[in-house]
Design a protein that fits this description.
Pectate Lyase C-like, globular, 13-stranded mixed β-sheet, Pectin_lyase_fold/virulence, mainly beta, SACTE_4363, Pectin_lyas_fold, 17-stranded mixed β-sheet, Immunoglobulin-like, signal, about 800 residues, 3 domains, 3 helices
């Protein structure tokens, strides 16, 4: 493994139109004399890369420590975690005029720097001041002339579990510029970021701006389980995802702004607007399932890790840490990994039943971490990074449920890995919808620090898994970047059923960036850029199809829902010599009822070629000129073009034949609305009768049987075993005898999920015709998700 530090790189090549930003008149200049930090800055329990502040630190000491760590380069190997113990830091005395405020905490937040409170609630740590993110400056004299790179590469930094009374002003060299980037309005803090830079459990008693002072480009971010009292100004943000939060007002955005379970969210306006132009907002009232991230906190003098429970159909923030909200695990349940720990050491701890607390650092692994115990927690601090060194995976999860993996970065090694993170073995079956295996703030890189290689970044085989904020990135700049260097086919493959993704960012992979094969998958917010560096159209073809769709739902999938998708192209002419390269569609799905795409946008950022359609053959082409965006509100089909209607004619009066058919033309047996009956829901109905005619002279025995599949809705399913029946001979003849009664599996057994006899006739029976029927008895567990469910009853006749 080569370890190369990077000193320079070309700017990221995204483009967007300028969106006007706020104009701010105040100007702050100057610096301060900073007292030395306490001698015990690094915490001995968690290692040298973790610093814990308490109220013995002055505001200036805290600011100096944070600012010093914020200077890491984009592909540095250093990692930093800062914690604040419960308390108040800084003074609010000058809050109305940041230019003259004194004794405030004021620092920028840099690469691989995480800052978090150690309280049980964000309100336990109060910061008078600001920890902020500013864009890259390219034009000192007149920054309005240089909108990029701006915040397009402001990755890998985070804050959580803090309350801010925002008081921000420029710092250091920025304060001496004619137009300082760090200048804001009173009671406003800036967090102008792109991918892998989450805000969680943040309480802001004022305003939050997500873009640079002069509207510099920004490309996506993530806010969850937070409260912002005032305005959130998203301005030049190309895309942003906000989940389970409370906001005052929202202002701005460019192409794809998605809200899920957000109090105060704006109304959906996605696509063409009556007055012209296009809206960019998609609002989903409730998040279908969520589990907030585990976090370290202090319970008195004891460190614990709080692991929230999964919740369904929620909105607004929830900072509770009582027993109903989750479980507090003592630190004794964790192996505290420090930089230099080996795969063997970490696996030994996992085998002993320990959870892992992975402190900041880069961990080189010659074997995957084997997670074989359900409920295991792996929590990374300060962008702890795992690097496979022998073509192995970084983590492999067994066929278990309830595993929680959070706060980790995985860098592909220079030896090709088949997969970097595998959730469940092939064919995994164990799951618990109430305790899903969850990936939270997991970030993958292929290339950047070196020429990484991995065929697939994340593979999810476990049913009911939950992905909450994923960025899988095949690097477009940095070390080892090139079409044949940092190779990677797919960012995410989902094979498990009932998997949900909330905030999915997948970029620059060389084939389908996401492949979704599991049933009843759901994605809320997707952001993806097509690779910049395809050399020719011939090198970027899916068979005979132009290019590779970014988001691909498998041909056999019958139910899938994705909302808020943005797919962007920039076929850079420095790689393709100016040749046009096209993608047939950014999103490709099977054309059948039950598969639905809402709020999808394609954008031609720059370069050559573009995207011909948004979903399948729908949506206008996003091609030149640069910045062209096309919007599609809904993609859904009423019919399945791959289905075939079958017809057969049975001749009447033909001697010596055995024939059967289903009476009537109604192909849907409607059991109506189930009625609650104690510990279950109950519904009844009658099948369409089956006519059996046997005119053979031999009188050979015959039987008619049936078997039902699972009952499916758009969001859930339950087993066909809960259907039972009582067969009967509706019209007697030909020696027909009714089959035995089959109880619903709710009472016992497997119900009609196994083949059961509807009727039969013994050998030597008389010639004739009979009509067979059955009364259906459906008993559904009380905890099944509400909805309209359908199943298929397959009837088979044998003789």
């Amino acid at each position: 493994m080569k370890h190369r530090s990077r000193t320079d790189h070309p700017p990221a090549r995204r483009r967007t139109r300028l969106v006007a930003g706020a104009t701010i008149a105040a100007l702050a200049l100057g610096g301060s004399v900073v007292a030395a930090a306490p001698a015990s800055a690094a915490d001995p329990l968690f290692g040298p890369n973790v610093t814990i502040f308490d109220e013995t630190w002055t505001a200036d000491q805290i600011s100096a420590a944070l600012q010093a760590a914020s200077q890491e380069s984009e592909f540095s190997f250093n990692r930093h975690q800062f914690f604040f113990k419960p308390g108040t830091y800084g003074s609010a005395a000058g809050q109305n005029n940041p230019a003259t405020a004194t004794d405030i905490v004021n620092s920028e937040l840099g690469y691989y720097q995480s800052v978090a409170g150690l309280g049980a609630s964000p309100e336990d740590v109060r910061i008078n001041g600001a920890i902020h993110v500013e864009p890259v400056r390219a034009c000192e004299a007149n920054p309005w002339d240089c909108q990029q790179p701006g915040s397009l590469t402001r990755f890998w930094r985070s804050m959580s579990n803090l309350t801010f009374n925002p008081i921000q002003r420029p710092i250091g060299a920025d304060a001496l510029r004619p137009f300082p980037s760090g200048l804001t309005n009173a009671h406003q803090m800036r967090f102008a970021v792109s991918q892998a830079a989450p805000l969680r459990r943040i309480n802001i008693e004022g305003d939050l701006t997500l873009m640079g002072r002069v509207g510099e480009y920004a490309s996506g971010g993530y806010l969850a389980n937070s409260n912002v009292d005032g305005e959130i100004l998203s301005g030049s943000q190309q895309q942003w995802f906000t989940r389970n939060s409370s906001v005052g007002t929202w202002n701005g955005g460019v192409w794809n702004t998605v809200f899920s379970g957000v109090e105060g969210a704006p109304a959906t306006d996605f696509g063409p607007l009556p007055a012209g132009g296009n809206g960019n907002k998609t609002t989903i009232d409730e998040t279908p399932i969520v589990r907030e991230s585990p976090f370290l906190y202090l319970d008195g003098d004891d460190y614990k890790v709080f692991v929230p429970k999964a919740k369904q159909d929620t909105r607004g923030h929830d900072w509770s840490t009582d027993a109903a909200a989750g479980e507090s695990l003592p630190l004794e349940d964790f192996f505290i990994a420090k930089e230099g720990a080996t795969a063997a050491q970490l696996n030994a701890a996992l085998a002993d039943g320990k959870n892992l607390l992975v402190t900041p650092g880069v961990y080189y692994l010659d074997a995957p971490l084997e997670v074989d115990d359900g409920g295991t927690v792996i929590l990374g601090l300060g962008y702890a990074s795992l690097v496979p060194t022998a073509g192995n995976a970084a983590i492999e999860v067994g066929d278990v449920a309830g595993v929680k993996i959070a706060g980790l970065t995985i860098d592909a090694g220079e030896t090709l890995s088949d997969v970097l993170l595998k959730v469940g073995p092939d064919g995994a079956a164990v799951s618990d919808p109430t305790d899903p295996t969850t990936l939270t703030d997991v970030f993958i890189r292929i290339g950047g620090p070196w020429a990484g290689k991995a065929t697939t970044s994340i593979e999810v085989n476990s049913p009911d898994a939950l992905l909450d904020h994923i960025w899988a990135w095949r690097a477009d700049h940095g070390e080892g970047v090139g079409w044949t260097s940092n190779v990677g086919d797919h960012g995410l493959i989902v094979n498990g059923d009932n998997v949900t993704a909330l905030g999915l960012f997948v970029e620059h992979y060389q084939k389908n960036q996401v492949i979704w094969n599991g049933e009843r998958g759901r994605t809320i917010f997707y952001q993806s850029e097509i690779p910049y560096d395809a050399p020719t159209q011939g090198a970027y073809m899916d068979g005979t199809r132009l290019g590779w769709s970014s988001y691909r739902v498998g041909d056999n999938v019958r139910q899938h829902l994705a909302q808020g998708l943005g797919v962007y192209s920039f076929f850079d002419n420095q790689y393709n010599n100016g040749q046009n390269i096209y993608v047939e569609s950014g999103v490709q799905v099977p054309q059948r009822p039950g598969v639905r795409i809402e709020s999808a946008v394609s954008v031609m950022l720059n370069g050559t070629g573009g995207i011909n359609h948004i979903v399948n053959d729908q949506g206008e082409a996003a091609v030149a000129p640069a910045g062209t965006a096309k919007f599609l509100k809904v993609y859904e089909t009423e019919t399945d073009p791959n289905a075939q209607n079958l017809q057969v004619t049975v001749p009447t009066g033909a001697p010596g034949e055995f024939v059967w058919s289903i009476d009537g033309t109604n192909d849907l047996v409607d059991l109506g609305t189930a009625v609650e009956n104690g510990d279950h829901f109950a519904a009844t109905g009658v099948i369409n009768p089956v006519r059996v005619t046997d005119t053979r002279a031999s009188g050979a025995a015959w039987s008619v049987s049936a078997q039902v599949g699972d009952f499916d809705s758009s969001v859930s399913s339950f087993s066909g075993k809960y259907l039972g029946w009582t067969p009967s001979v509706v019209e007697a003849g030909g020696g027909a005898v009714a089959g035995d009664e089959v109880d619903s599996g709710f009472i016992g057994g497997e119900g009609l999920s196994v083949s059961s006899t509807l009727g039969h006739a013994p050998s030597g029976h008389d010639r004739g015709s009979a009509k067979l029927g059955a009364q259906l008895d459906l008993r559904i567990p009380i905890d099944v998700t509400d909805g309209t469910y359908r199943a298929t009853l397959t009837i088979t006749a044998l003789s």
